[in-house]
Amino acid sequence: MSDGFAKVREGITDLLVPESFCRKGPGTRTGEVFYNRQMEFGRDISVVFGREIFKEGQKILDGLAATGARGLRLANECGVKADFVLNDRDLRAAVLIKENAELNSLGHVKVQCCDLRSLLAGEQFDYIDVDPFGTPIDFIDSALQSCANGGVIAITATDTAPLYGTYPRTCFRRYGSRSAKSPFAHETGLRILTGYLVREAAKHDRAVEPLLCFHADHYFRCYVKIINGAVKADSAIKKMGFATFDRKTLERGISPERLTDKDAGPLWSGPLFSKDLLRSMRATGDLGTAARCSKVLETWREEVGMPPCFFGMDELAQKTKLAPPKLLEFVAHLVDAGAKASRTHFDPKGLKTDLTAGELLDEYKKFAKTR
Ligand SMILES: C[S@@+](CC[C@H](N)C(=O)[O-])C[C@H]1O[C@@H](n2cnc3c(N)ncnc32)[C@H](O)[C@@H]1O
Description:
- This protein has helices spanning 40-53, 69-77, 91-103, 116-122, 137-146, 160-164, 168-175, 185-202, 230-237, 275-280, 290-303, 313-320, 327-336, 357-370, and strands at residues 5-10, 13-18, 59-62, 83-87, 110-112, 125-130, 147-157, 206-216, 219-228, 240-245, 252-255, 264-268, 311-312, 341-344, 347-353.
- It is of the alpha/beta class.
- The chain has two domains: 5-278, Vaccinia Virus protein VP39 (Rossmann fold); 279-370, 2-Layer Sandwich (Phenylalanyl-tRNA Synthetase, Chain B, domain 1), CATH 3.30.56.
- It has a seven-stranded mixed sheet, sandwiched between helices. A three-stranded antiparallel sheet has the order 11-10-12. Strands 13-15-14 form a three-stranded antiparallel sheet.
- The longest helix has 18 residues, at 185-202.
- The radius of gyration is 21 Å and the shape is globular.
- S-adenosylmethionine is lined by residues 34-35, 39, 43, 64-67, 69-70, 87-90, 93, 115-116, 131-133.
- S-adenosylmethionine binds at residues 34-35, 39, 43, 64-67, 69-70, 87-90, 93, 115-116, 131-133.
């Protein structure tokens, strides 16, 4: 197979992909085996994550593998002897995965060609990757049930418009939560998705512990640990809440109860990252997007433990009618003034803080006037 295919390299893995592959943007179904170059960053992060999490002898599944880009990279670049299974129900994809496995001397990788839900119904895995077109909703229940105790599921969602609040009715149908437009809608969208995983797992007396949940480009990605136990499931459920936002005062936060019918939720109010995991994750030079990975790791480490619902410099500027100062200088000023403050990966012009909106606006006015 080479006519109509191009060879690309990600990390240290070579891949044959359709010549007409998607170079930019979210990528769409083309009728060919799917490959999106822009997702290389997300796959680099998967490799960095797998290097910390995978253990010898585990069963690791890339359930929607397409060209095999993600699963083969995990098998080739994480340095772990495990049982890697790559699946896609499209026969052309399965044939291409096999070819790409051989190209990288990964003959031990098992290739399956079936519906992911039937594969998950018959087998247990320690790691399940679900990277669909659009919403992951079709696969979540079967992935949650098939995941071993202490295992991890990694889920991508590209149905961002419903989760951001552009299509709240679609969001409600899919995730049973109200989404709402706000300056921090990227964060509420991610928390709705994470909260959905928490509630669905709880139905099976299983708890979800977020390890690494983030927003990037045009998608959300959640890596969560699955732990057995009704008591643990109950304590995860206790961290569900509703995001409130007052457009007049800019006050925001997460409340355990719904306070108005405009609140977003139910959604996850707890941590989105494991501090220990982030401390050990390293962006090594072999990754194609090493510089971007390194930068984002730094930002994630800064925002670990910060309160939910970030602020945007633009909203502060609009409210005070004062031009925004440099973000890093303002964050440093807030820290000097005794507040908790950090950048956030959700928005290059966003910040997280434990100040109320009123306190933050006062600091902003003082600081912006001196610039
Ligand atoms: C977005 S692509 C996966 C991209 C891939 N993970 C990567 O990093 O390049 C989704 C893939 O899921 C496959 N697929 C869709 N529904 C499926 C199902 N029910 N069972 C198995 N595979 C399915 C499609 O054939 C397609 O190749």
